[in-house]
Amino acid sequence: AMRHLPYFCRGEVVKGFGRGSKELGIPTANFSEEVVESFPSDISTGIYYGWACVGNGDVHKMVLSIGWNPFYKNIKKSVETHIIHTYKEDFYGEILSIVITGYIRPEKNFDSLDALISAIQEDIEEAKRQLDLPEHLKLKEDNFFHLPAGKIGNHH
Ligand code: ADP
Ligand code: MG
Q1: Those residues with Cβ within 8 angstroms of residue 88's Cβ, 6 or more apart along the chain or in another chain
Q2: Options 3.90.1010.10, 3.60.40.10, 1.10.10.10, 2.40.30.30; which CATH number does 7-143 get?
């Protein structure tokens, strides 16, 4: 799962398929199918962490899931970023830039919504701790997050 890391990516935030992440208090900004297709095809599904910024806003900690997309009958992946920051408004249509720096765990099925939510809360705490370590913290300052507006595309 770590072979492709750190992984830099940017793209437009699109509407997801209404899993109700926001209602759980954990909104996830979804990348378009094109961006997802640009990921290495052998990247493991599961939960990752790293840094994210919306437009040319501040860089924040994030947790990210790479999963199977139910909208495409689980034959395509989805990539969803939960930024660990409270935004005043939605940012559909904006450019999200991320660097994925570490892996937490594989995808899991949960017996209850409560079990799912508490697993995600643990993922968030784990991400916060890991991202304070020098090897992950240094990527917050990467030039990738300070490119001039209009330079859209993948880093690699
Ligand atoms: P969708 O199914 O459309 O992805 P979600 O319930 O997952 O809906 O909500 C995602 C949207 O919430 C994002 O596209 C973004 O516009 C907004 N949003 C607000 N705060 C955050 C945040 N901290 N992290 C991610 N998305 C956020
Ligand atoms: Mg979402």
Answers
A1: none
A2: 2.40.30.30
**Each residue of 67-95: pLDDT tens digit?**
987 777 788 899 999 999 999 999 999 99
Q: Is 82 in the pocket of ligand 1 (CB under 6 A)?
A: yes
Are 98 and 80 a contacting pair, CB within 8 Å?
Answer: no
Predicted model pTM: 0.93
Which pLDDT value is given to residue 151?
52
**What are 142's strand-pairing partners?**
none
From 90, 116, 117, the mutation candidate for ligand 1 (largest count of ligand atoms within 8 A of CB) is 90
